[in-house]
Structure formats: structure tokens, C-alpha cells
Amino acid sequence: MANKLFTIFDRYPDLLIEFSDKADGAMKPTGDSVVDGKIFDNRDKFLKKLRVNKDSLVALDQVHEDKVLLVKLSHGGKLNLVADGLLTREKNLYLSIRVADCLPIYIFDPRSKVIGLVHCGWRSLKYEYY
Fold first, then answer.
1. Please, what is the Cα angle at 115 between 56 and 76, to 5 degrees?
2. φ, ψ of residue 51 in degrees (nearest 5)
3. What does 18-63 look like in DSSP terms, one character per residue?
4. What span, in angstroms and rounded, lies between the C-alpha atoms of 34 and 16?
5. Fewest Cβ atoms nearer than 10 Å: which of 1, 90, 97, 120?
6. 23-58 per-position pLDDT tens digit
7. What is the CATH number of domain 4-120?
8. What ranges do the domains of the chain cover?
9. pTM above the 0.90 mark?
10. Cα–Cα distance, 80 to 2 (Å, whole number)
């Protein structure tokens, strides 16, 4: 599936870049088991639409810091890794972040086959003046 927001990646047909949207339902767990049950159903339906097995998915419990994790196939199915970025060079491992008013950064190095996702909120995007 090609996402037309990311035409820069069109020449790499093995990459899957997609967004859930309002029609897919909420995706952020709240701690309320009734609500979360529906959210997990929404996520499962979305992954099924993409033909992605949830045991191949790695997702973040984002913390608005500068921690980035290198993940491997053994991390598949872990949906609450505490960090704000994920990197991998594993095939068939899908990375997931949630953003609302934050900036998602998508990384791909075609030479090394490293992919990454970084969640950048206002606390983790800092600049220094020189």
C-alpha cells in the first residue's frame, strides 16, 4: 500500500508507511479497560487491513524524552516500549508511534536498510542558540 503523503519513499516498494485516521477509531490506550478493549479492537482491525500480524509490531509508550531503542524481531508484539524512537534493520518488523500535535519523523537508509520512527514533541525538540 502506498501512502501518497510519502512519495519520497515510492522507489522503495518494500516499505509500508501508513496512518490510521479518525475512521479507524481511537488507538491510544487510556487505562480504562472497557475503553482499551475497543482501542485494541481498533488496532487489530487496522493491522488486519494492512495485512500486518500484531506479533510483528513494535509500539512505543512515548515519554517526551530523547530515548531511542534499537529493536529486533524478538521485540515483535511489544506494544509499550518506553522511549520516543525506534530503529531497526530487521525485515518484517513493523514500527508504530502515535502522534496528535507532535512531529513524526520517518527514517530510511536504503544502503544499510535501517528504518526508524521518532516521536518529537515540544519537550524533545530543542534547539540551542550559538
1. 20
2. 60, 45
3. ----GGG---S--S-HHHHHHHHHHHHHHHHHHT--GGGEEEEE--
4. 31
5. 1
6. 998 887 776 666 767 888 899 999 999 999 999 999
7. 3.60.140.10
8. 4-120
9. no
10. 27
